[in-house]
Amino acid sequence: MMATQLLDGKIVAEKFLQELRPRLDRPGRPPCVAFLRVGEEASSQFYVARKRAVAESLGIRSLLAHLDRDAAPEIILSQLERWNGDDSIDGILVQAPLPNRQLQELAFAAVDSAKDVDGFHPHNFGLLALDRSDGFVPCTALGILHLLRAYGVELEGRHVAIVGRSTIVGRPLALLLQSRSVNATVSVCHSKSGDLARSLCRSADVVVVAAGSAHLVGPSWIRKGAIVVDVGQTAVTGPDGCRRPVGDVDFAAVAPLCQAITPVPGGVGPMTVAMLMGNVVRAWELARWNGN
Ligand code: NAP
Q1: Can you give the pTM of this predicted structure?
Q2: What is the position in ligand 1's atom list of the atom closest to the CA of 47?
Q3: In principle, which of 47, 111, 219, 267 could form an S-S bond with 9, CB 3.0–4.6 Å?
């Protein structure tokens, strides 16, 4: 029996970052990315700190504005306006989730689309939907594609089932994988899919789970020889009282069935951060060097 391949996001992300370094070797100021965090969500705090640490390790400058959970929309918008007009800032990232969905959409749309390194501005989302390659693509979707390609996973003509239709993960991933540069056939499931979710996953060559529900997917969802990508990261308190990220897939039960699977942590997470760095460098190159 063939051993299950671990799709190691730490190794692939590190290689991507090493390959990014020569592009940073330019005279003048380095790239700069600004982060906006709203509220006290522990995971947002962790993710922004992680992204800033990786930026720093590459020599990319970063700054952070942290606003109160009850901050008025005008305060959030005026912060983004200031960054939009600041030529020393190349990329802007509004860390999701914001306290409510309307505010999040307002904030995403207020970022200058040329600095939208997370790819959530309607302009960039629209370019992705139109199958154009000149916009910024959301980092988790891009990271999943990059990880699968790094391991030689062929996607053209294959059936990919995605569990989750969020604008952060599932939706942009579906658009990217069905683009003419990837050519997968994509099914998207959500919380109202009922039993269809399990049967679509079971018929898929590749299953990507982004539901935010710890251990939702067990062996009955996965056919033998499938490739499984677990995006989920839910903080769960273990028997030792420590909080740890747990994936949406029951790894121990599912891995023996798979051709390949991502671990949590160390799968999609590092890829998301690496793709963000790629988008920041691209935004800087476009603004300062006309993309040359
Ligand atoms: P989200 O906005 O809560 O969306 C979850 C999606 O899953 C929704 O579309 C929901 O359906 C669907 N869903 C929930 N339960 C389901 C079920 N039982 N069956 C089928 N579909 C179900 O979450 P998100 O922002 O996409 O994030 C998802 C997970 O990925 C979270 O754990 C998050 O922490 C993690 N994440 C990881 C990274 C990374 O870099 N590793 C990046 C982003 C997110 P409805 O639309 O019907 O509600």
Answers
A1: 0.98
A2: 40
A3: 267
